[in-house]
Amino acid sequence: MVGLEPKHTAVRSPESNGMAESFVKTMKRDYISIMSKPDGLTAVKNLGGGLRTL
């Protein structure tokens, strides 16, 4: 496991928006940028496999 903990915040609050943006940025930087993605279908398959290994 990655050590993720569920956090509950109000919908559309600045805090929850910031947490979501930070998560997406981390995923792009640490996982998506190093995956093979010759086309959209391959990219989606690789991302799904990468998430299962976390």
Automatic annotation (TrEMBL):
Gene3D superfamilies: Ribonuclease H-like superfamily/Ribonuclease H. One of its GO terms (biological process) is DNA integration. Residues 1-20 are annotated as: Disordered. It holds the Pfam family rve_3. InterPro entries: Integrase_cat-core, RNaseH-like_sf, RNaseH_sf. GO terms for molecular function: nucleic acid binding. Residues 3-40 form the Integrase catalytic domain. This is Insertion element IS2 transposase InsD. It comes from Klebsiella pneumoniae.
